[in-house]
Amino acid sequence: MNVNIWIAFTASLVSLNVVWGQRSLDTIYTNASKNVAMFFPSPIHQAIVGSEDFVFSYDREEAGYFGLLQGVEGVESNLLVITSDHKVYAYILKYAKELTQLNHFVRERDGIGKIGPARELQMKEDSMVVEASQYDRFCRLLLYGKPKNMVTKRKRGVRLRLEDIVYDGREVYLIFGIRNRSGIDFEVDRLEVLRVNGNAKRRASYQEIPLEPIHGCGIPVVVKDGDMVHFVYVLPKFVLGDKERLKLVLEELHGGRRMELRY
Q1: Are 261 and 151 a contacting pair, CB within 8 Å?
Q2: What number of CA atoms fall less than 13 Å from residue 161's CA on the CB side?
Q3: What domain of life does the UniProt record list for this protein's source (predicted)?
Q4: How many domains does the chain have?
């Protein structure tokens, strides 16, 4: 079920419970450098945007009252939000280089309708597709921003960099950068992420736990000589303990180059 079908389906449910008004939808302006916060009178149950140029982030694990909106320059879109009390809110989304309002407090009377309590918007077969689309949208915003530098490893003309770690609900996003100035194309075999506990010199207490990505954005097959690539791993949420570190292992396909990076 694609986004447009989902929105149309939701609209049909709303129309069964309320007569739509003729007032135009409010417009929310956003960009990629600032978070625009929207506070709702009831916890957010579901939300979706109509274009990949915009992302609305909210806590899907523990329903919260607010969400964060970001967007990149492009065509206008729309946002549809359903709260836990079955009320529906809709907005037009537009990009603006400069923002005059960063916080929007939504009132109950701003809703456009209500869905009957017996109707549940479940997308069991298509949930993975929808989640992947949401991951891609957030990844695009992360890659659109200015690269950071948390930790870097250089070896034989290849540089591996962990640029940022971003938490969003039940997921954590790791942003990487690889630059190749070795004179030879670098074919990527794998980039492994491990959670390290203990000291390697004390093997009895040392432990490495692989962290498997649930999604990837822009992962390169080859980094050509002279190129710089940025990409994102999406992993289930984790928080490192006081004695834990991240270990990143980059290996070359059809070659012996291997890099380890610790954070």
Answers
A1: yes
A2: 14
A3: Bacteria
A4: 2
